[in-house]
From TrEMBL:
PANTHER family named among the record's database cross-references: PROCOLLAGEN-LYSINE,2-OXOGLUTARATE 5-DIOXYGENASE 2 (PTHR10730:SF6), PROCOLLAGEN-LYSINE,2-OXOGLUTARATE 5-DIOXYGENASE/GLYCOSYLTRANSFERASE 25 FAMILY MEMBER (PTHR10730)
Name of the molecule in the record: procollagen-lysine 5-dioxygenase
EC number: 1.14.11.4
Species of provenance: Lates calcarifer (Barramundi)
GO cellular component, one term: rough endoplasmic reticulum
Amino acid sequence: SRPLYSPDMISFTLPILLKFCLLSFSEKLLVLTVATEETDGFHRFIRSANYFNYTVKVLGMEETWKGGDVGRSIGGGQKVRLLKEAMEALADQEDLIILTVDSYDLIFAGGPEEILRKFQQANHKVLFAAEALIWPDKRLADKYPLVRSGKRYLNSGGIIGYAPYINRIVSQWNLHDNDDDQLFYTKIYVDPLQRQTLNMTLDHKCQIFQNLNGAVDEVLLKFGTDRVRVRNTVYDSLPVVIHGNGNTKMYLNYLGNYVPNAWNYEHGCRDCDDDVVDLSQLKYPNVLVGVFIEQPTPFLPEFFQRLLTMDYPKDKLKLFVHNNEVYHEKHIQKFWEENRNAFNSFKVVGPEENLSQGEARNMGMDLCRKDATCNYYFSMDSDVMLTNRQTLKLLIEQNRKIIGPLVTRHGKLWSNFWGALSLDGYYARSEDYVDIVQRKRVGVWNIPYMAHVYLVKGSVLRNEMKERNYFVLEKLDPDMALCRNARELGIFMYITNRHDFGRLISTANYNISHYNNDLWQIFENPADWREKYIHQNYTRIFTENYLEEPCPDVYWFPVFTEKACDELVEEMEHYGSWSGGKHEDKRIAGGYETVPTDDIHMKQIGFDKEWLHFIREFISPVTLKVFSGYYTKGYAIMNFVVKYTPERQAYLRPHHDSSTFTINIALNNKDRDFQGGGCRFHRYNCSIESPRKGWSFMHPGRLTHLHEGLPTTNGTRYIAVSFIDP
Ligand SMILES: *[C@@H]1O[C@H](CO)[C@@H](O)[C@H](O)[C@H]1NC(C)=O
Ligand SMILES: *[C@@H]1O[C@H](CO)[C@@H](O)[C@H](O)[C@H]1NC(C)=O
Ligand SMILES: *[C@@H]1O[C@H](CO)[C@@H](O)[C@H](O)[C@H]1NC(C)=O
Ligand SMILES: *[C@@H]1O[C@H](CO)[C@@H](O)[C@H](O)[C@H]1NC(C)=O
Ligand SMILES: *[C@@H]1O[C@H](CO)[C@@H](O)[C@H](O)[C@H]1NC(C)=O
Ligand SMILES: *[C@@H]1O[C@H](CO)[C@@H](O)[C@H](O)[C@H]1NC(C)=O
Ligand SMILES: *[C@@H]1O[C@H](CO)[C@@H](O)[C@H](O)[C@H]1NC(C)=O
């Protein structure tokens, strides 16, 4: 007799064959599917089949697909031809039940026992999947039997039946590989005689087969403690075979992030560690890092610094930078001069090349594609702040064709991926989007769109993605073009939120007409502003009482970084119009200053709003701590930087301030930048002669705290002063 199974069967093993002979009910089911390529969708199908222990035979692998582009037009006949050939050997297996399904866009949500039980309940020899839409020949609609409730039309993505009957259907095939399979089955089904003799019906109420086309609104995820299912809310059924037919592939991808056991509330991500690679056991792969600076971007020096301090051997990294902004040439020049030898190679394409964003991205990707030693292409936009130094390693270890780390706008729901697409291919919010962004659901997510930062395997660029242009397509943004191309190639794109990777900064409203423009970013990018400008030990004021009281009621605490001090001084010197310490002062109400300093007001450089915000965010909390019971309004009219130098004004005579309290931040270093200086409080005969750069004094302005600025004897001393709550 002929062997029941052909040797190319997946999971063909002697034990399985033995179990088969013992005739456990479930093992009479054989799944047949046609796949000519091992796409990502195919692997997902096999994973779900293996999870439920289906016996699957794959037909057509290594064959060239000649069945047409079934996504767009008719076709698929090759599937019937292959099935016909396979069924010849199985035709006389009367107890064998054949389940034939698509595989690229299909997952199992339940096991073989359940399918067999439901099939028995249907009480027919052959059962086809059903859907509400008729395809491909609408004229056949009238020939279908009426159904009182349920889906009326046949879909050939799923068929279950006794082997002899399936054989009698597919043996009728005598058409071409690119003829339509669904039309073929439909014609047999709508023929009343055949329908009766072959004892065929449709799964009208989605007991077994759920086609998603036209039915996305009918289904929901149903979370169990172990498995996740799809529930059809119209028929109250739990279909077993979930098919992303038509343009519902992205929705199937969403379901596949959970079903059958990928993620649930109890256990989180179940398959995140499948197929991972262990970098500690491996030579570090070569990575080409493509950096794209397409608009003026705040904190670019910090971006490059993070790149440099990434935990990855630099000799394995090549750098390609596309800079579209003349403004940033100085930053890149500086980084290049200091670090060009740190990397394996370093190539910059500047604004003079006048490349479009799409062209530049094509160029970066192609550099990796053409270089056989390039194992990965890591594309990063300059607005991505990777605060996790392990990011590149973690992405490589996850071992996907395309994967990005989740990055979000600080404190916002804005991120670098979309969980769903609208019909016209733009953003749509998926049910799980917010939970993923907020990391309430943690895992590796198959998504339809990602941007800003992602890793692509070099081998993918040299195989599935070997065309040289993926970024220029119609009028789409380059990233949308890339993602659409990947979707159409059936390449899954993933975003991982298994770790905190970093954030996306805002490039909106970045005014580059100042000298140190990042100082102005306190509103737009507060987290990056704080990291760049607020002293490392500032928070210790609150956690460890990290502050001093050198004179009664004079508090002294760290607030600014060296950079903040330097940039503020540079900004003032760049502006250059120091007041000269004269009594007449047009900048203030009344026009007369009794104790004038040589200064520039924050308002003069357009920094008053930002400065007041700084006071409210960073000074007010200190006030509350040291002057307990006093709630500052955080309001100040007089905010300025003072310059003391022996050549101009060296000191300030004793005075009160027109403030409830005053802050006075040292902006440079005694002994390095100047000599002398300091502050003396008369009532207490108390002087502070060694101010520390970046540290602020805070003291009451009137009555008790008559004070003077001690002479600066050499060099230039700068302080920033605010009279708060005047
Ligand atoms: C599949 O088979 C394995 C080994 O026999 C068994 O441990 C597992 O529980 C089965 N899976 C399901 C979903 O029945
Ligand atoms: C179809 O087959 C079932 C048994 O599988 C039988 O009970 C039923 O009567 C058949 N229906 C028709 C219309 O022949
Ligand atoms: C840059 O390219 C654009 C479009 O490709 C073109 O309109 C523009 O004139 C070019 N500019 C320069 C300076 O070459
Ligand atoms: C940018 O800053 C300059 C100088 O403060 C100011 O004159 C200009 O209006 C600002 N531009 C925008 C768009 O805010
Ligand atoms: C913060 O405090 C620690 C420990 O006192 C010190 O080592 C470090 O230098 C301080 N940081 C700065 C920026 O001064
Ligand atoms: C102020 O203190 C200095 C030393 O710190 C001392 O020499 C001086 O006599 C004091 N003056 C008064 C008025 O107490
Ligand atoms: C003043 O400072 C300069 C350098 O900043 C130094 O060379 C010089 O010796 C100093 N003069 C005095 C009198 O300390």
